[in-house]
Amino acid sequence: MERVDKRLRVVLEGVTLAETTQGKRVLETSHPPVYYFPAADVGMHYLLAGSASSFCEWKGTARYFDVNVAGKLVRRATRRLA
Known about the structure:
Strand content: over 45%
CATH class: Mainly Beta
Largest sheet: 3 strands, antiparallel
Distance between the termini: 15 Å
Order of helices and strands: EEEEEEEE
Strand order of the largest sheet: 1-4-5
Radius of gyration: 13 Å
Shape: globular
CATH architecture: Beta Complex
CATH topology: Metal Binding Protein, Guanine Nucleotide Exchange Factor, Chain A
Number of strands: 8
């Protein structure tokens, strides 16, 4: 895991869902990079809690959320539980 000094943004339908300058990047063997945002930098009001979760022995438990922006629904976005 390494700190990312650049500004990271997540945009859907022209709406910024998350933006941070304190992100983290994880590089795993044979996987593309995964970026993590502090919860304070995420528009949690766009997220709808789902019932699914998963567990990784290195990263811990993740809950799955749907994202709802301007009538567009994206299923199973993830949020790592600290």
